Amino acid sequence: MLVLTRHINEKIIIGDNIEITVVDIQGDQVSLGIEAPREVPIHRKEIYEAIQAENRRAAQSVPGNLSRISQLLKRGQKGEDGGEGER
To answer: Rounded distance, CA 62 to CA 44, Å?
Structure first.
């Protein structure tokens, strides 16, 4: 881990297009301003971890959901009298 010391209004550059500015320091809290291209996602770590956990849960539920959807589609293809409906 790289550890840097910065004061208010001092900046850190990451790569060619990400700039982090120390905006304010109050007690043990630091406010940072981040300038980055829109396509670069920026999240607090706890939010990022929650997104990842939700993505894993969603990916695990896909096979069961696909099976249910398939069954519903098969039922929807049959007409009221049990015959083949329009396709």
So the answer is: 27
- Comparing 86 with 16, the larger pLDDT belongs to 16
Q: Is 21 strand, coil or helix? A: strand
pLDDT digits (tens, 9 = 90+) for 33-85: 999 999 999 999 999 999 999 998 887 766 667 777 888 888 877 654 555 55
Look up tokens 């007409």; give the residue: 79
Output the CA–CA distances (angstroms, integers) from residue 15 to 22, 36, 65, in the order listed. Answer: 18, 10, 41
Torsion of CA 3, 8, 14, 17, to 10 degrees: 180
* Residue 77 near residue 68 (C-beta atoms within 8 A): no
The whole-angstrom separation of Cα 64 and Cα 71 is 11
Name the phi and psi angles at 61, rounded to 5. -85, -10
